[in-house]
Amino acid sequence: MKNIAVLLSGCGVYDGAEIHESVLTLLALSKAGANYQCFAPGVEQMHVVNHLNGEINAEETRNVLQESARICRGEVLNVQSLDITEYDGLIVPGGFGAAKNLCDFAVAGSGSKVEPSVEAFIQEFALVKKPIGFMCIAPVMIPSIFKTNPIGTIGNDSGTAQAFTEMGGEHRDATVEDIIVDTHNNIVSTPAYMLANSIAEANVGIEKLVAKVLEMT
Question: How much is the average pLDDT of 70-84?
Fold first, then answer.
């Protein structure tokens, strides 16, 4: 049975992991007969957003690891506890937390850097060529992790695609149902809610991504 790590970035589309993408990922893995283990960094998230009105609460702070535990019923580990020998691949759902907490793309754009513990975590999979799936905005981390002309997609947003290219990646436009596969670096990416107008639309690409990651293990 395949064991897949899932990297979360909090809980909630505006300041953490996109909940639909995260749950659909876990569901697809379970339906495929794979085991999964959620991980998250034990760092403070960039800010806290009221998801009802979109306002930032400047007085409140939250921990990414603790917030991620909400999605996976408390079954989450700190990224620093990874034993790479126990896992066959990695999947990273999106949500603005990927661009705010896992890296700082949301504020730094093409000059962004991946949070150190997250970078070390993802690189462990990359160094041993285990497949990694990125969805939604999470692919913006690809050029920082892979240095050999990595290929990926965030959909068709021209500004984000340009930043991806400026960072050293090769961007491929894609529809919500598409996956883009970089066979050299063992990367799979899909736009998910960068383009999806419904949970059903997002699920098409997510299921394809999960299936491809499992196939590549």
Answer: 98
Q: Are 129 and 216 in contact (CB under 8 A)?
A: no
For position 189, what pLDDT does the model report? 98
CB 118 within 8 A of CB 171: no
Q: Are 182 and 216 in contact (CB under 8 A)?
A: no
147 has a pLDDT exceeding 90: no
pLDDT at residue 133, as a whole number:
98
Average pLDDT over residues 7-20: 98
Are 95 and 24 spatial neighbours (Cβ–Cβ below 8 Å)? no
Q: What mean pLDDT do residues 80-96 have? A: 98
Q: Which amino acid is at 7?
A: L
**Rounded to the nearest 10 degrees, what angle do helices 19-31 and 199-216 cross at?**
50
Amino acid at 9: S
pLDDT band, residue 171 (cuts 50/70/90): very high
Q: How many Cβ atoms sit within 10 Å of the Cβ of residue 124?
A: 18
Contact criterion met (CB below 8 Å) for 47 and 101: no
pTM: 0.97
Number of Cβ within a 10 Å radius of residue 127: 10
Can you tell me the distance from the alpha carbon of 18 to that of 186, in angstroms, rounded to the nearest whole number? 23
Phi and psi, residue 126, nearest 5°: -65, -40
Active-site residue, 11 included: no
CA distance 40 to 63: 10
Alpha helices in the chain (DSSP H): 19-31, 64-68, 96-100, 105-108, 116-127, 142-145, 158-166, 199-216
